[in-house]
Amino acid sequence: VDRAVAEAKASKNYNPKNTELAFFGGSFTAINREYMLELLTAGYKYVKSGDVCGIRISTRPDAVNSEMLDILKQHGVTAIELGAQSMDDEVLLHNRRGHTAEDVVKASALIKEAGFSLGLQMMTGLYTDTDEKAIKTAEKIIQIHPDTVRIYPTVVLEHTRLSALYRSGEYSPETLDSAVSLCGKLLGMFRKADIKVIRLGLHSIDEESFVAGPWHPAFGELCESAEYLILILTELEKKPKGKYTVYVNKTEISKAVGNGKCNILKMKE
Asked: Residues near 253 by Cβ (< 8 Å), separated by ≥ 6?
């Protein structure tokens, strides 16, 4: 924790007003209680000193209760992200998530009532999932109205049950195009509902353990391009045939044009 803060403070972009400490990569409130408290204590001193503006954690929806929220609040935690993944109980069951959609709803309500910033993480392309189910998941997340959302398309990794299902032909991962198209729609839905999407796709993967699925280093930008295409075509469909000029913020032109001018090519089609 000390090393992470020292590294952040050495960065030229460091600003204590928007720098958080984050405990990710596991269900933070489900790890050994003593170890969790050691990490929180190590981090809290930087909240008190003003070196960071708060602590962000990620955890499971069924590992949240009022007692746990009190502990987190006392140690400077300001934001809690829940791995919802899907709001379809069949999908959760088939993927052995160990919690229900109702657990997400209840935990989200507790987190919001306690005054934390709420983040929800969803996945697309899970085993037995469909685009329709993913859109319904997004609609249910919008009803909860978290402050932030992360969207991760499912990738298949070695030595997992999913890799066995993939190799047996029982599971087909999304293609990159289908994942981008779906996530572009989801991005538009969340934006319209005034919910900030803070991540699209995995940060990085261990190439040796990657088996299949829609991984791309610039997945987020591909989705933003897909969202632009939907916006532009939706507007054009309202108008009579003719020539039109599309105006875009100059910082967003590459997204509107698309990777390899894909949006221009699709509009020509």
From this structure: none
